[in-house]
Amino acid sequence: MTDSNEPRKIDLAEAMRQKLQQKKQQQNAANKPGFTGTQQTKAMKSQNNKKPNNQRRRTGGS
């Protein structure tokens, strides 16, 4: 009966399922009315646009 004292070994897939289930439960709890948690959705910040390549101007290329 010493096996019951040791934590049960689980594979990676089972661990990921448990983590996903915990995450879903937390999200469901956050979506309930009257919840004043810190995990509020935030508006996305604008992404930086790619800077134009001015190598041709710097080097005087054709």
Note the main attributes of this structure:
single chain, 62 residues, mainly alpha
Description:
This protein is an all-alpha fold. The protein has helices at 12-30, 55-59. The mean pLDDT is 79.
Task: Spell out the helices and strands N to C.
Answer: HH
Query: Rg from C-alpha positions?
Result: 26 Å
The number of helices is: 2
Amino- and carboxy-terminal Cα gap: 82 Å
Q: Categorize the overall geometry.
A: elongated
- Average predicted local confidence, pLDDT: 79
What proportion of the residues is helical, as a percent range?
25-40%
Low-confidence stretches: none
What class would the helix/strand composition place it in? mainly alpha
- Percentage of residues in DSSP E strands: under 5%
The count of strands amounts to 0
Largest sheet geometry = none
SSE order and pairing:
Elements: H1 12-30, H2 55-59
Brief digest:
The protein is mainly α.
